[in-house]
Amino acid sequence: MCDMRKTVVYIMTAACLLLLCGYASGRSADVGRFLSGVTHYSAGRFDLAAEIFTRLHETSPDDDAVNYYLGLTDYALGRLDSAEVHLGLAVSQDTTNQWYLQALGTLYSVQGRRSDFATVCEKLLKLSPAQYNTPYTLTVIGDEKMNRRDDAGALEYYDRALELDPDYAPAELGKLEILRFTGNFPPFFLTLDHFLRNEIVRDEIKSDYLGMLIDNMDSRFYWVWGEQLGKLVDLCYRQAPADPVSNLNKLRMCIIENKQDSVIYMCNRLAEVSRQAGDKENLVLALSTAGDMSYQMGDRREAYRYYDEALEVDPDCAPVLNNYAYYLSEEGRSLRKALKMSRRTIELEPDNATYLDTCGWILYLLGRPKEAKPLFKHAMLYGGKDSSVVLEHYSVILGELGEKDLSIYYHSLAEQKKAQQQ
pTM of whole model > 0.85? Predict the structure, then answer.
C-alpha cells in the first residue's frame, strides 16, 4: 500500500511539474496561484482548488493546464457536465497529452459512455502502446467495434487481448459473440470449451451463457451442434453441481432430447439445489415441470403431488394453477377445486386465452355454459382463434346454448386449424 501511494505521489508530482513548466512559459505571474491550486487539489480541498482554477480560467480560457485541473476539480465536486467541457478543451488544446486523455476517459467510464471511453482508449493505445496495451483496454476497444458491427476489427482486438492473457474472460466472451454472430461455429466451440474450463470465471456466468445458447437454439442448430452443446452442458453441470442454472440447463437438454426418466431425475435435482440456494423461481419451475412430465407419463397422482408442492412455494404460479385445473377437468374430478384455481389464473392474467379456455371449459362441465360463453368471447380477442382446442370448446358451448350456426362456424374454424397444424 505504501509503495502504491509513493507511486501515485510520484506520478502526480511528475505530471504537475510538466504542466507547470508549460504553464510557466506562458504566464509566469500566475505560477504561484496555479501551484497553490494544484496543492489544494492534491490535498482534497476541491472547493478551494475550484476557486483558484476558475479565476485562472477567466484570464486564460484557452490554457490547457488550467482547463485540465478545473476539469479535475469539477469532477471531484460532482459537476460532471462542466468537467467534461474543461477536460475536452484540454484534450483539444493538446491532443497528445496522456494525462488529459486519461482523465477524460475516466469521466466517460464513470458515466457509462462506453463508446466515448473506447475512443479515448484507442487514442491512448496509439500514444503509448507500452502502457495501454492491456487486455482490458484492448477488450474495451473490441467491444465498441463489435457494437459498430465491425466484426473483423473486434475479433482482432479480442485476439490481441487473449494473446496477452489467454484466460481474460471479457475478451473470450466478446470473441464468442463475434464467432456466434458470424456462424463460425468450429472455433466458437473450441473457445467456449476453454471458457467453461477457465477456473477464474464464476460458475453462474458460465451457466448463464449456456442458458442463452439454449434459449436461442433452433432445430437446425441443434441438428448440427446439439451433441457438442450437450457435452458442454454436462461439463458445466459436473463443475457446478450446486448451481441451479447449471442444473436447469441440464434439465432443458433432457427435455429437448425427450429423455423422460432423466427429466424427472433432473427436476428433483434442480428442486433440491434450488431449495438450498433459496431460488424460489427455479424451485417452482422444477416442481411444475416434474408435474407436467409425470402426467404425460400417466402418473397422475405423482403429477398432482408435484403441483401441490409447487403451489406451496408459490400459490399464485399461474401455469401450475392452469395445468392442475385443466388436468382435473379432463378427469372430470374435483371440478370446484379446479374452478377455483382456474379463476385465480384469470385474475392474474385476464387476457390469457389459454387460461380463459380452461376456466370456460370447467364452467361448461359444471353445467354453466352461459357463464362460460363470455370467457370464450374474450379469448377470441386475445389469440383464441389460433388454437384448435379453444375453437372446438367454444363450438361446443355455442351448441349447448342453441346457437347452432355459430357453433358450426367455430367447429369449421377448429377443423381448419387442425389441418394447418398437421
Answer: no
